[in-house]
Amino acid sequence: MMLALHGAGVSDGISIGKAFVLERELPDIAALTLAPEQLDAEIERFVRAVDAARAQLIHIREQIPTDAPVEAASFLDTHLLILDDKMISQAPIEIIRHQRRNAEWALKVQSDRLSEIFEQMEDPYLRNKKTDVRHVVERVLRHLLNQQVDEDDKLDPGEIVVANDLTPADTVVLKHKRIHAFVTTMGGPISHTAILARSLGIPAIVGVHNATRYVRSGEEIIVDGKRGILIVAPDKSTIAEYRRRQRDIQRRRLELARLRKSRSVTLDGKSVTLQANIELPADMKAALDANAAGIGLYRTEFLFMNRAQPPTEEEQFRAYVRVARALEGKPVTIRTIDIGADKQVDGMGHITAGGLNPALGLRAVRLCLHDPSIFRPQLRAILRASAHGKVRLMIPMLSSQDELFRVLDLIEETKWHLKRAGEKFNPRLPIGGMIEVPAAAISADIFAPHLDFFSIGTNDLIQYTLAIDRVDDSVNYLYDPLHPAVLRLISITLDAARKARIPVAMCGEMAGDPRYTALLLGLGLREFSMHPATLLMIKRNVRLSHAGKLAQFARKVLRSRDTHVIHDMVNSLTKDDIG
């Protein structure tokens, strides 16, 4: 009987195929009391299991394909660090010795203690780290229990994996085995596995409760990674419908692919720059495939995540140079670290944690100015990278001229030190500011004379303008890019940039949403930066648009005071209206 199960779609695409249910249930762990003369042998058995788990992780890390995302290795490094932490590698030994318990029980007791600590953390990102601890503990337990750990060897290429959970190591190995998609009963959109699925381009759904209970190996299933729907035992008409959708997706992709080398220009000859947003150097492939005019936003905070210590200056320098060189003369805009609020990183909790409302607290440029020991190595790395490509530096979350001047002073100081050390850099490195708080938009004319460019970050600009936390499910329905206040702030910013004769781009989600392309063109925006997957859709819309005609439309929208009316105006635009 056909059954539809729902979860969180974390990686787009549709896959139809045979299921492979990956069973990795561990047996109940019993508490055994040991005789004193057995303790040394039990401790040695535990140490051997830890060593075997370490060797296994190192082996998997060595097998990572050269074209795999760099975060794959980073996640495995995190598991190695957890394994070597005293809380995992030493604390169970004390339990074995003092409580005279078997190794499996000692490890379970210690794991439960750590889970309780993580569970009490308020921040969802840090709370999610208990999953990493559980993955590491289970790997050691399987060695203690002499369990077969390579059951995925039975997997055939093209199958769809259904599992309770997948570790980052599993995900890398499964991709290597050419699986088409996966579904897990556990996990969320910010889990390591979800991040890896997106990077690897595998359709995936997480959090499908009871999926392993309702799916059997060999059964036909459909994974709709965009809508988060798993269909078990689909009937013929459902399969036919999804085959049709697959063909539609493929047809649309082919149509858009034909635009790859087309000029991004409106019907009345206005050239529009379309750039890509990336999070990691590995994302460059998608940006190059879409023929992006450059990287309009390189989010550097992902270099800082999932690790115990911040990246070194040299590590950052290598990452930035890799992107700059891959672009072969096209620009890359490197945003300085934007951590805090919903983007927490390991090893800096003493700085970023705390505060009743972290979105309004110590984050982004505020945090960098609060602790220049984080900021200076990044400024050095960006400046050094500027000698290897067309690099631009962008400052996030500016809200006052004083903040800007302090950053500019630090940049000048860094230049002075680099010059003395004989390091090469671009002395005229373009410096831009993100307009993402209302104060910055209203003060855009004050910032403009001191900056080389603006970039409007609509995600935060909308959040702060409308005073809503976009990660809070109870209020995020109020998040509205077409709110009159938001549109007016965008217009103010564009006007200030025009008067100061500096370019202004938009790098938030709004720039990559085809519903808003016509309005943004009408408002005067000529530079868009977005996820590479949407770039060709935006190019198609640009080529169908007449900027002059849309300017009249935008003026009407700006005069409107009613959000519902604005939505109606934007949603009812026809092909004749825009072109």
Looking at this protein, list some descriptive labels.
alpha/beta; eight-stranded mixed sheet; eight-stranded parallel sheet
Describe this structure in words.
This protein is an alpha/beta fold and 579 residues long. Helices cover 48% and strands 13% of the residues. It has 26 helices and 16 strands. Strands 1-8-7-3-4-5-6-2 form an eight-stranded mixed β-sheet. An eight-stranded parallel β-sheet has the order 15-14-13-12-11-10-9-16. Helix 2 (70-84) crosses helix 7. The longest helix is centred in the first third of the chain and has 24 residues, at 39-62. It is globular, with a radius of gyration of 26 Å. The mean pLDDT is 86.
Give a brief description:
This protein is α/β, with parallel strands linked by helices and 579 residues long. The chain is built from 26 helices and 16 strands.
How far from one another are the termini? 49 Å
Percentage of residues in helical conformation: 40-55%
Order of the strands making up the biggest sheet? 1-8-7-3-4-5-6-2
- Our count of helices gives 26
| Low-pLDDT regions | none
**Taking all residues together, what is the mean pLDDT?**
86
- Strand-pairing-aware structural class: alpha/beta
Shape descriptor = globular
Radius of gyration: 26 Å
Kindly estimate the percentage of residues that lie in beta strands according to DSSP. 5-15%
The description of the largest β-sheet is:
8 strands, mixed
Number of strands: 16
Please describe the topology of this protein.
Elements: E1 3-6, E2 8-11, E3 14-22, H1 39-62, H2 70-84, H3 86-89, H4 91-99, H5 103-119, H6 124-127, H7 130-144, E4 160-163, H8 168-176, E5 181-184, H9 192-200, E6 204-206, H10 211-214, E7 220-224, E8 229-232, H11 236-257, E9 273-278, H12 284-289, E10 295-299, H13 313-326, E11 331-335, H14 349-352, H15 364-370, H16 372-385, E12 390-395, H17 401-420, E13 431-435, H18 438-442, H19 444-447, E14 453-456, H20 458-465, H21 484-500, E15 504-506, H22 517-523, E16 527-530, H23 532-543, H24 547-559, H25 563-571, H26 575-578
Parallel strand pairs: 3-4, 4-5, 5-6, 9-10, 9-16, 10-11, 11-12, 12-13, 13-14, 14-15
Antiparallel strand pairs: 1-8, 2-6, 3-7, 7-8
Helix pairs in contact: 1-2, 1-4, 1-7, 2-7, 4-5, 5-7, 8-9, 13-16, 15-16, 16-17, 22-24
